Each structure stands twice: as C-alpha cells, then as structure tokens.
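User: Structure please.
Assistant: Input sequence and predicted structure:
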Amino acid sequence: MARRNRPHTRIAIALLMLAQAGCSSARTAPGATEGYVDAGQGVRLFYRIVGAGRDTLVVLHGGPGFSMDYLAADLEPLAEDLTVVFYDQRGTGKSSLVSDSVALDAQRFAEDLEAVRLHFGIGRLTLLGHSWGAGVAALYAIRYPDRVGRMLIVDGMPLRREALTRTFEALEASRDTAQLRQMREWRAAREANPGDAAACRSYYVLWFQPFFVDSAALGRSRGDFCAGTPEALANKVRAVDRVTFPSLGAFDWRPPLRGLTAPALVIHGTADVIPVRYAREWAEALPQSRLLLIERAGHFPYLESPEVFFPAVTEFVRGGWPSGATVPPRG
C-alpha cells in the first residue's frame, strides 16, 4: 500500500477553523485558507490551501513571474479528493516582490519550496510542477532528493538550456507577421507602463494562442495571467523576466535527476509548443517515471482534457499509475 502523505497539523487546524466559520462542504465547494510562509531574509510567500483530503499536493506554478492565479481556480477539482497547497513564488503575486539579482536567482526558488515544506511539517513532498514550475521541482529534487515523495511534471519546460532556446525560437518562427507586430506593440506598452493589467492581458492573449489546440479553452479558464497589483506586474517585467531564467546558465538537469528515486509522472499534451521529445527526456532522466501523453491537448491539459488530466493526477498522488502511462526506454 502506498504511504500516505498526511497534511500537517497547521493545515488541519486552518481547515477546521474554516469549517467552524460556516464554509461549505469541501467536496462540493472546497473552502480555502490563506496565509504566509516565512522564507527567511525578509521574504514572505503567500499560500492558499484548498480541499481536505488525506493526501497533500503542493503545486508549483509556471512563469517565472506569474502567480498562482493563472491556474489555482482551474485546478480546484483536485481538491475534491486531495489537500492542495498553492503558493506565489518570490517576486510575484502576493509574495514579497524582491527584485535584485541575488534574491531572484533560480536556486532561491528551490529554497523557498523547502521553507514551505518546513512550515507545514511535511516529511516528503508530493509536487506538481507546471511549465516553469517543473524547473523549480527539478532544482528542488536535485538539492533535496530525499525530501521528494512523488513528482508530477505537467508540460514542463525542457531539461536543457539548448532545448529551451530551440523551443522559443520555433515558437517565434511559427507566428505570422501580423501577430508579431501586435505582440511588439503590446510589449512596448508594457515596458512603458509595466503595471498596466490591460496591456498585460492583451499581450498574453496573443502569446498563449499557439499553446492551445482549442482556442476556446483559454476562454474557459477561470485564471488570470495578469492578476495582482500594478507593483507585482511591474516587478515581473522589470526584475523577474530579466534575472531568473538567465540565472540558470547553460543548464542540463538530466545527469543529476538520474539519482532521484521518487516515483514521477510526466504528463504532456501532444500538441504543446514544447515538443513531446522534451517530455520524453524528462521521463528518460527520472529513473522511476512513466509518461502520459494526452492527445489533442496543448500546454494546459487541465483545460483541454480535464476528463483525462484530473483522474490521472489523483490516481498518481494516491500511489498508483494512471491508465495509459507508459515506461519510457532508458539507456
């Protein structure tokens, strides 16, 4: 039987307080509790907990520089069976808006996750990393391999700098002239006024179009890539975007990840702008992994194929392997 990862007492107490305050049933409309984790050196991380299941899942949002608000509401179906912990990464959302190069070094994001683990007293983390969040999961697993219980990589960023660069180059080349011109105009508007949420949304509507098979799926999202205060939006443009990815250098996480013994499930949409071959690299690098490819889905499978995505995640978090997940070839 799979070992259960029980929520820490602080989580349980917070949920009990919500229930006593008159919140509705956790299964039909999961209550939420919010607070802050002290990550040290004056940095506070804003968190939100939904659900009250026996098994706890910590979600690492993408970006860098976005907040949990682009995906938290869309992932709430997981709270019907699990306790789900979201938090805003440093420099964004309601967390501390650090802006210097030292504070925004990518390794600090891994240390923040360790602060979250310690705050809630979780022995071994079950992680879900989406996009850039998969990179945070990798950095953490390399640094603290014995503190990872299970790991979900959902349409994760490539494991190598070269592959990441190729992905962005191919994405740029796939856009037509009119779209590129519009994006340049909105990018200039954001640089002139980086706290402008309207300009931010106009830019990201264009940016994310190729990330979907069904363009209507973005409209079904309850999330917002440009949520937050003008100060938070400005910090992404002026600081996070300029520091965090470059701080990774010429990274290749495949060799160090081969020492991770925790079970891992790599979920990837076959139509993602991040090619499937890079999802296979994740699965091949992680010794105890399986790969679940979701047909006719792009970068956000929870929006385009929820009937596949949510049961697969729940099954894996509870200790099993979802139907359709395959063992990748390994050298």
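The longest helix spans residues 230-247.
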